[in-house]
Write a structure and sequence with these properties.
This protein has 114 residues and is mainly alpha-helical. The protein has three helices and two strands. The longest helix has 27 residues.
């Protein structure tokens, strides 16, 4: 979003951009820039942006990027639970992305059904 596509100037800009739309507009993003790792381990996978229409704008893409991040975390949590047989009650988060309220709320929403 920032370095290669130039859609934002700084990482924190993605939240404002994602908030400019009400949903992802049918856009889905698979972040596999150098392969798709845990839990799939496909080093030859490539990134994809799907669902582009005339209606889609960079806000939809930004929201899809944030959602993809949360979906990756959900996939790891699912794999951890399956492999360990332990149901996780909560997820503690850290790092720069935790200040993004759109991401954190979406993450909480998709983990709520665990």
């Amino acid at each position: 979003m920032r370095d290669n596509l130039g859609l934002i100037e700084k990482s924190s800009d993605i939240e404002k951009l994602a908030l400019s739309v009400s949903d992802n507009g049918g856009v889905y993003f698979v972040p596999a820039f150098s392969g798709l790792y845990a839990p799939y381990w496909k080093d030859n996978a490539r990134g994809v942006i799907a669902g582009l229409t005339r209606y889609v704008n960079k806000g939809h893409i930004a929201r899809a990027v944030l959602e993809a991040t949360a979906f990756q975390v959900r996939e790891i949590v699912d794999a951890m639970q399956q492999d360990s047989g332990i149901v996780l009650d909560n997820l503690r988060v850290d790092g720069g992305m935790v200040v993004n309220q759109v991401l954190m709320q979406f993450q909480a929403d998709i983990l709520a059904g665990l």
